[in-house]
Amino acid sequence: MPDFNSIAFTLACGLAAMLALGFVTWMVSFFKADVSIVDSAWSLLIFSGGLVYAAALPPTAPRAFLVLALVALWALRLAAYITWRNWGEAEDHRYRAIRARNQPRFEWKSLYLVFVLQAMLAWIVSMPLLAALGGSAALNWFDAAGGVVVLSGFLFESVGDWQLARFKHDPANASGVMDRGLWRYTRHPNYFGEFCVWWGFYLIACAAGGWWAIVSPLLMSVLLLRVSGVTLLEKDIGGRRPAYRDYVARTNTFFPWLPKGGL
User: Last residue of a domain, which of 136, 151, 171?
Assistant: First the structure.
């Protein structure tokens, strides 16, 4: 494992890269008057950190190849999907609410309220990548377990996103609630998949001796369950879509399980 000074310098470089990408994204949002584009940049912020860590630290193949391949697969898929999903749409209602609460001159305030904040969160979340890339321990069963968990989470959220996109594409479902496929077993298969991805990366970090990176999956779990994920999404959805209340009554919130009342 590199010494503390090397790790600190590498972390600082990663943060600088994420802040720079966040700043560029903010400039685009300034002219588009739409800060929800930060959602498309979220996974790319983390990926950019991983690339900086890999470039700054001594190579640790084959673990480095495993980590970079997995994070690239996750990041590029998520960024592409969110960009496609939001293309041509108005600013997300969550960001419109933030905009309304922070007038006047929200377009300037959004630099630190949205983009710098997202870059800082992405930096913390990226720490298992640093720990895994900086470790010198030989590959072991923790790497295998972590890789399986990451891929399982990736597949779970990818399939969930695909199923939801197909559902929304059908005009007959315009006023309905998606309760099929993976959405039958959890109201948030995409968030559960994301949860698995970061606990999987943490297992790989542990394989390299980076147990200290546990702050990342813990933070991601809190964000998904209590802050910007489940809690925020469901805050007013029952009022906007009454059928969702019935869906809540029979479907597990986060961890997949059989619907209440069975199959």
Answer: 136
Q: Which of 17, 16, 53, 75 is nearest to 130 (CA)?
A: 53
Q: List pLDDT tens digits, range 34-71.
A: 999 999 999 999 999 999 999 998 877 799 999 999 99
Query: Of 96, 128, 111, nearest to 220 (Cα)?
Result: 128
- 8 by Cβ neighbours in 10 Å (0-12 / 13-18 / 19+) ranks as exposed
Task: Tell me the residue range of the domain where 100 lies.
Answer: 1-136
Give the CA diameter of the chain: 59
Q: What is the DSSP letter of 34?
A: -
127 contacts: CB under 8 Å, gap ≥ 6: 11, 205, 210, 213, 215, 216
Residue with tokens 């923790």, as numbered in its chain: 142
What does pTM read for this prediction? 0.92
Looking at 136, 165, 192, which one is the last position of a domain? 136
Half-sphere exposure of 136 (CA within 13 A, CB side): 5
Do 119 and 169 belong together in one domain?
A: no
